[in-house]
Design a protein that fits this description.
The structure is a single chain. By secondary structure, this protein is α/β, with parallel strands linked by helices. The chain has a domain of 90 residues: ANL, C-terminal domain (GMP Synthetase, Chain A, domain 3). Helix content is 34%, strand content 24%. The chain contains 12 helices and 19 strands. The strands form 4 sheets. Strands 4-3-5-6-7-8-9-13-12-11-10 form an 11-stranded mixed beta sheet, sandwiched between helices. A 4-stranded mixed beta sheet has the order 18-17-16-19, with no helix packed on it. Helix 2 packs across helix 6, helix 9 packs across helix 10 and helix 11 runs antiparallel to helix 12. The longest helix has 22 residues.
Amino acid sequence: MSAYEHAFRSALFPLYETLLRRRSTLRYLREYEASQWLPADRVAELQWHKLRRLIEHCWREVPYYQRRWKELGLTPEDIRSPADYALLPTLTKPEIRACFDELHASSWRGKLLYKTTGGSTGEPMRFGYTRESYERRIAAMWRGYAWAGARMGRRTLYLWGMAIGQPMRAHAIKDRLYHAAFNRHMLNAFLMSEEHMSAYADEIDAFRAEVIVAYAGPLLRMAEWLLANGRSVHRPQAILSAAEALHDAQRAVIEQAFGCPVFNTYGCREFMLIASECGQRDGLHLTADHLAVELVGLQPSATGGSIGEIAVTDLHNYGMPLLRYLNGDLGTPSAKVCACGRGLPLLQRVDGRKLDTLRTPAGHLLPGEFIVYAFLGVTSIKRYQVVQREIGALDIRIVPDAGFDSSVLEQIRGEIVKATGTSMELRFELVDEIAASASGKFRVAICELH
């Protein structure tokens, strides 16, 4: 630990967070740093204790849950164990939008903070949360990032989503001072393009970060550019990938380009960090002392194993509780016990957005990770994207590179039919460019089935 990192953790951050902002983030961080080492059964007991209290609160104070549970003939007395929690209905984004006011706890009205999701389906969602919930989310984030070495105060470069446009001078100065205090440098992932890659590489090299934290998509683009151009940059000690599912094949490319281990994290705007890898990198530790995470509706995967929809409950948001909230992501469960000694359970992997998971004619799910593997080793393609608009066909868009010919299409076809079967029609289209989404994220697979 550097002298600055020690000073930031022990003096600067407490001064800023506790005395100036009057927040309890550090107290919650100390709590979570202790509870992560509890045995697995004790973590489960702690989570159930918090969940039970939240359920009783929702029954007393939240009109939406009072109405919905009465419609189903349920009361808190019916939820006697964690297994009974699955009796309660899941919550979806359309339901939150339709019942927004009804989801507020009566004693918390007028006291909440609010955020809005980006709305990958074109329908943004607004949600409320308490100050304690926010402070605990920050604490859980710092704990999870630290597992990969991204401790507070450590020299860190962020390749991250930022506002586009010229900020007011006073605001820009404030941002620079804020990031300088945290010992970090910000690069706007939304402005990264082919013509600016060299400049971005120069900034990464000049800052000489110990850790890089980045969106998975832009990070992969940078890694591919570095390898294609024979360019090397300062080697950090670790990289944290965030905001999008990171597949193993993509991780290998990034590690080759930057020469350091890459750690996967998982979160969403509604809850911030949900799970993160530790040094073992044998799955992602769920923040089970902070959130309750389930995989519901498990279905067989076309590549083996099972996949379920991720449902999340914030155990400390008493203002607008979201119980069993389906955030649109899919995950694969894990029964492993991590060798690191933490009692927090593991998620084997995040399989991406439900919207990015394709369907085979046989009814199996085909995660976007398989599409990545199908194109692995194909060197004559710049970019690709697979879109499913009907159950029996895939539209495959390809930006060709030097050396591309029809044999490449047959190579790709041979890989994809291993999972889809020959009854799936594969329709190839050669294009000049495939644009990222408005958020700067690039989707390898898109399912438009309804």
